[in-house]
Amino acid sequence: MKLTPHSRLGAVALTGALALTLAACSSGSSEEPGATGDGAAAELSGSLAAAGATSQENAVAGWIAGFNEQQPGVAVSYDAIGSGGGREQFLAGAVQLAGSDAALDEEELAQATERCYGGEAIEVPLYISPIAVVYNLPDVDAEHINMSAETIAKVFNGDITSWDDAAIAAENPDVELPAIDIIPVNRSDESGTTENFTEYLEAASDGAWPHEASGDWPITGTQSGQGTQGVIDTVTGAEGAIGYADASRAGDLGTVALKVGEEYVPFSAEAAAAVVDASPRAEDATANRLVVELDRTTTAAGAYPLVLMSYSIACSVYEDQADVDNVKAYLTYVASPEGQERAADPTVAGSAPISDDLRTEVMAAIDAIALAG
């Protein structure tokens, strides 16, 4: 069955869509997707539609380009509509894959059984990236502004309203801070980035953040932007603004160094990877759901605890062999050292590659994808 973009996606804004489409013949091989008996790559064909997190949009563009070099006959598209929208589209059967900065919740996991033809959802963390707290202070001559989680929480909750507030000044004694209003900027859409950011604030701010972690921003009447680019554009357009976004999109904006223990740590791929390696699996994690419980309160030297892990979500069972082959081949490329290094390129996304140990677990989950019946 050759899939075409579903009509139900017509109402979704396609600004973030990524598509590469070429034609080739399909092999009827029953062997592992992407391989033939002589070790050469099998030619696959059809369409592979995905939707989800804007945070991994740049990485996905690189992954699609790299996969297309191997499998030009598979038309892969990614609609960057946000984590919540991606999960909704996946559970509705509109796409074969979702990208999400938050794992499926209990209700979504129940829906996944029906969507996955009696199988289950597979969740594998294939994009690891720090979330940057970005600000627009063009006259501040500092590589970074230092902030503890408590200070950041008070800024975004509206308790600290000026850049020269005593709390910020105390953490930046060598920085001349301007006496201008702080303009907090948040995501307007449901977002895994927001969920990770508020989870960090809730866990690490010593009670300064009075809200529960959520993918929806808990405060009304704020400045906001649609998607990652919307936040970046809003912060860029207003002096004194501060926001949060996937670090790969920070551009020329200033970024905050987070207080970790007794030091201040700026974001980096290495610092993000250090937190992931030190964090345990979630209580409900399984061999097919490799969900990590990130340690937001770590005091480990050089670690950056404001990190998102963006999951690739697939079905363990599909009803069409082409879907099985294409999903397995694409995710195998994304998880490969080549795919991870492509996303890690600073000109692509600057993400942190997964470890070899995690790759072994990820490949076991991908290999479990099978045909229904």
Can you offer a commentary on this structure?
This protein is of the alpha/beta class. It is built from 11 helices and 14 strands. The protein has helices spanning 57-70, 83-91, 106-115, 149-156, 166-171, 192-204, 227-236, 269-277, 321-335, 337-344, 356-367, and strands at residues 18-20, 46-52, 74-79, 97-100, 121-135, 145-147, 183-187, 223-225, 241-246, 254-260, 263-265, 307-315, 317-318, 370-371. The strands form 2 sheets. Strands 1, 2, 3, 4, 5, 6, 7, 8, 9, 10, 11 and 12 form a 12-stranded mixed beta sheet that branches. The chain has a two-stranded parallel ribbon with strand order 13-14. Strand 2, helix 1 and strand 3 (74-79) form a beta-alpha-beta unit. It starts with 17 loop residues before the first strand and ends with a strand.
Task: Pick out its properties.
single chain, 373 residues, alpha/beta, twelve-stranded mixed β-sheet, two-stranded parallel sheet, 14 strands, 31% helix, disordered N terminus
